[in-house]
Amino acid sequence: MSTQLAVAPEEIPPPVLTPCYTSAVSSMSLLELVRFCKEEMGNYCRGEVGDDRYALEILRRAMKLHDAQAWDALQQCFSGIVHTWIRRHSKRERAYALDSEENYVAQAFTRFWQASVNNAELKFTSLASALNYLRASLNGAIMDTLRVYTHPNEIPLPDANDPVYNYELATEEPEDFEELWFVVRSLLSGEREIRLAYLHFHCGLKAREIVQFCPDEFNDVQEVYRLRHNIFKRLTRNADQIRWRLSCIA
Questions:
Q1: Is residue 59 within 8 Å of residue 98, measured between CB atoms?
Q2: What would the 3-class secondary structure string for 62-109 be?
Q3: In sequence order, which residues have a C-beta less than 8 Å from that of residue 237 and are 6 or more positions away?
Q4: 3-state class of 190 per DSSP?
Q5: Mind listing the pLDDT tens digit for each residue in 198-215?
Q6: Closest CA relative to residue 177, chosen from 156, 197, 206
Q7: Residue range 19-31, pLDDT digits in tens
Q8: Which residues contact 240 (CB under 8 A, 6 or more apart)?
Q9: What share of the chain is helix, strand, coil (3-state, %, to 5)?
Q10: Which of 100, 107, 188, 221 is most buried as measured by Cβ atoms within 10 A of its Cβ?
Q11: Largest CA distance in the chain
Q12: Distance between CA 77 and CA 38 in Å, rounded?
């Protein structure tokens, strides 16, 4: 007959606490959040139920606090799965014939970012819901590209609040260009961003074409993608100012 010894509550060893509980998530550094978010991504990809709090905290800082470093961290955590999605996309072969995988991924994140800026009510309560939205953004980027090249006269309807779209419309009027370009220039950071904005918006050149035609200025497609993403963020962040100037011009 075995004898069970009673253990006083004070003698029970405390549980081993994970970083999730030893520190408030909101006070964690981005470096820590990224490390644990990548673990959450691994759980998600394996179909395991996990804790989404680290990914959600990065999303909160990026979308609600407009923290640029948090956006970079978000892309660092999510870019791998976006590459996987495009490689499994049913129209990937046609998409690859028109643009690079890196550009589609960049467009997906840009659309995702613009949606958060233009819709203050947009909020994700789970990692799965955020990834579903990001996947829809990628699919939209792919399908819009295919639609434009398949039916050149059928341009996808843009968001009327998109400052980039408003800027491109304005550049169709030569008399408006100089004043509007002055506004855009004032919002950009550095001569390289200004030069890239001119080549992309006014000249209509894609990333690979910019590298091809201006090799002395831009010899790396990845740099073009990065600068262009920064330009989109800055213009979108200042959408109200651009729209106001456009109304003044009109």
A1: no
A2: HHCCCCHHHHHHHHHHHHHHHHHHHHCCCCHHHHHHHCCHHHHHHHHH
A3: 66, 117
A4: coil
A5: 777 766 677 777 888 788
A6: 197
A7: 444 358 888 999 9
A8: none
A9: 70, 0, 30
A10: 107
A11: 99
A12: 6
